[in-house]
Write a structure and sequence with these properties.
Elements (H helix, E strand, L loop, with lengths): L1 H11 L4 H8 L3 H9 L8 H14 L4 H12 L1 H16 L6 H32 L18 H10 L9 H31 L8 H10 L8 E7 L3 E7 L2 E8 L4 E6 L2 E6 L5 E5 L2 E5 L7 E6 L4
Antiparallel strand pairs: 1-4, 1-6, 2-3, 2-5, 5-8, 6-7
């Protein structure tokens, strides 16, 4: 059991429960409950993991291994189901995005239009290569003194025959042209529908954003105003000017404000789950996940 390992290592290092409390900021009551395996007396499973991790790190033990052993003890069914859930997640393939679908439609249309263009080019080359029969000039009657103008009229009057073109090539070319036109129309409609569905509102220009920020008046504070935003469950104790104003567990997504004239002191059981803002200034997370943190904020220095 996790508690037995921690107690054995503590006694091996000749340390008392008070020594652990002083070195980890974990209450002696919680340390004794962990060593006895009496987890029901602790604030919650999230805080229990943090307490075990800090306790193990202080004793220079493998904290990750002990936390995993604790989870196995508390939830053996979840530990057995984890490999199956991971395998199902690996098999699931991500869906193609709308842009990738539009790109595939364009590539298909272009590939279908290539045979039509090649066939049209081939039909044009065959038409140019077809030999045209030479027009036989009409022989004018020979006269002793025929002027040159009459010979020119005779040549001009002979009709020139048109080159022969195979009707099958022209028919095939027309079919391919119609097919290409239909594909182009389909691609255009698909691109329009996909483009309209994925349109986004343009972001405001950086210069406009700076002007908006400059126009907003800055708020003045006559004391200490602290705001806590919680990304996970967290036990917390808050004192304003030395007086306890709140103690309890806040849930993921909760937000709470506290105000004091001189100072506000906060003790969090899961420092990685809470972010603080003091007098409008964001200070970020109070610490690492599972860590116990004590923070004091004053109106002069935050």
């Amino acid at each position: 059991m996790v508690g037995d390992k921690l107690r054995a290592e503590r006694e091996k290092q000749n340390l008392t429960v008070k020594d652990i409390e002083k070195g980890t900021s974990i209450r002696a009551l919680y340390i004794e409950c962990i060593e006895k395996g009496d987890y029901e007396q602790l604030p919650g499973e999230v805080y229990t993991k943090g307490f075990i991790r800090n306790y193990a790190n202080y004793l220079k033990l493998n904290a990750t291994e002990l936390v995993h052993e604790f989870v196995t003890e508390r939830h053996p069914e979840k530990t057995a189901a984890a490999p199956a859930a991971q395998a199902a997640k690996v098999k699931a393939a991500p869906a193609a995005s709308q842009k990738e679908q539009a790109s595939k439609v364009r590539e298909t249309a272009a590939a279908a239009a290539q045979p039509a263009a090649a066939e049209e080019k081939k039909a044009s080359a065959e038409t140019k290569a077809a030999p045209s029969p030479a027009a036989a000039p009409r022989k004018a009657p020979q006269r002793p003194a025929a002027p040159a103008r009459q010979e020119h009229k005779a040549r001009k009057a002979a009709p020139a025959q048109r080159p022969f073109s195979a009707p099958s090539s022209g028919s095939n070319r027309g079919k391919f042209i119609i097919l290409a036109v239909v594909l182009v129309v389909v691609v255009g409609v698909a691109a329009y529908l996909l483009g309209s569905s994925s349109s986004e509102t343009p972001a405001p220009a950086p210069q406009q954003a700076q002007q908006q920020q400059a126009a907003e008046p800055q708020k003045t504070y006559d004391g200490v105003e602290v705001t806590g935003k919680f990304s996970d469950d967290c036990w917390i104790e808050v004192k304003a000017d030395g007086k306890v104003v709140y103690e309890g567990t806040l849930k993921k997504g909760d937000s709470m404000d506290w105000k004091g004239q001189e100072n506000v002191t906060v003790r969090a059981g899961n420092a990685g789950a809470v972010e603080f803002t003091v007098n409008g200034k964001e200070l970020g997370k109070a610490g690492k996940e599972g860590q116990v943190a004590n923070k004091t904020f004053t109106k002069d220095a935050n």
